[in-house]
Amino acid sequence: MDKLMITGGTPLNGELRISGAKNAALPILAGTLLSDTPISVGNVPHLLDITTTLELLGRMGVGLTVDEKLNVEVDPTAIKSFTAPYDLVKTMRASILVLGPLVAKFGRAEVSLPGGCAIGGRPVNLHLAGLAQMGAEIEVRNGYIHAKAKRLKGCRLVLDLVTVTGTENLMMAATLAEGTTIIENAAREPEVVDLARFLNMMGANIQGAGTDVLVIEGVDSLSANGQNYRVMPDRIEAGTYLVAGAMTGGKVKLKDVRSDILDAVLQKLRESGAKIVTTEDTIELDMDGQRPHSVSLRTAPYPAFPTDMQAQFMALNAVADGVAVITETIFENRFMHVQEMQRMGADITVESNTAIIRGKPQLNAAPVMATDLRASASLVLAALVAEGQTVVDRIYHIDRGYECIEEKLAQLGAEIRRVPQ
């Protein structure tokens, strides 16, 4: 198990290219199962979760060709198995996204229940209830979801909670259902929009992506027709590197990025004192060597402040000038990074789902342990401004969602290296 060794105190300066979005690539790869023909997906990030998804598709018999730029050609016509086994699903909850496509296209699926999650329970009951309303017979036994249907039927689905993966699973299932499906209280995230755009490219008829009501007219078949699809840039990776620049008093320019899907994050960075200039595909942040101001925030579904950026702003507030209050409304266990930051000298008090952070001019290096994907990123950020050398352990969490994080930070001047256990 690798570790990261980071010596803090260097302002970050330079340019970076942002990778494709993990949270868009995963459902899009699942969505390739709906196609009658091979399909090519580009700008796929080189991440552990992507590798897991490709292994899952490969075990089903799906043909896969990956080139050196991680463009993935998927041939779903070779599929032989309709099972997503526990040994893969347990490492990545997004594996549940094959459920909707398998039932819609092949009429059956056996998908392991995802099990627990470090940042809180993310139940799949909304996925199952929606598929049942569309006519699927669903039984949960021996830890597996068994689903079958001759052909799903369109219907009106009202989601009890805003759920990104639930919206994506049901939207994919509805593309091949008979008739019209309306999904109300749908997730509005840009990654949901990217999936809808991908499905529409294959001939699906999805209206309303980016709003809370999706209308899907079912079609008889989907086909790539030789087209390639390019995954959108990763807004969370972009936000993480912008926070790194802000915390260190640096100047960072991101390329291959979209500012229009980062409004809430950019607003908070401006509040912290950052000067930000955007173009169609670049974002430049300049702190002019200054210490950031504290910024309070509350997480909520898109377009509000993303829960996936909460831990990074916790790290920023730990070294900011002032006192900040962060309220987490999405996941109940998403403050596990607090204990590790406290080991580095951060002054953070947690009361239920709220954290009060009193900024300090300096953190101190300490051995810390990553507990989940975004928490691990926040510890790396804290290490960038800590006095001394910090060792971040269990970084396989980081590798699930950040492509070559140590190489990218080193490109900006950070003193960081990966060492084997």
Explain what this protein looks like in three dimensions.
- Helix 10 links the parallel strand 18 and strand 19 (323-327).
- The longest helix has 13 residues, at 235-247.
- Helix 1 runs parallel beside helix 2.
- The chain starts with a strand and ends with a strand.
- Mean pLDDT is 94; it is low at 116-121.
- A 4-stranded mixed beta sheet has the order 23-25-1-26, with helices on one face.
- The protein has 421 residues and is α/β, with parallel strands linked by helices.
- The protein is 31% helix and 25% strand.
- The protein has helices spanning 22-31, 48-59, 86-89, 99-106, 125-133, 164-175, 190-201, 235-247, 263-271, 310-318, 337-343, 373-384, 396-401, 405-411, and strands spanning 3-7, 13-17, 39-42, 63-66, 72-75, 83-84, 108-112, 137-141, 144-148, 156-158, 180-184, 205-207, 213-217, 228-230, 251-255, 275-278, 282-286, 297-298, 323-327, 347-351, 354-358, 363-364, 367-369, 386-387, 389-393, 415-419.
Q: Give the helix level as a range of percent.
A: 25-40%
CA(first)-CA(last) distance: 5 Å
Q: Spans of 5+ residues with little confidence (pLDDT < 50)?
A: 116-121
Q: What is the number of helices?
A: 14
* DSSP strand count: 26
- Average of the residue pLDDT scores: 94
Biggest sheet architecture: 4 strands, mixed
Radius of gyration (Å): 21 Å
Our estimate of the beta-strand percent is 25-35%
Strand order of the largest sheet: 23-25-1-26
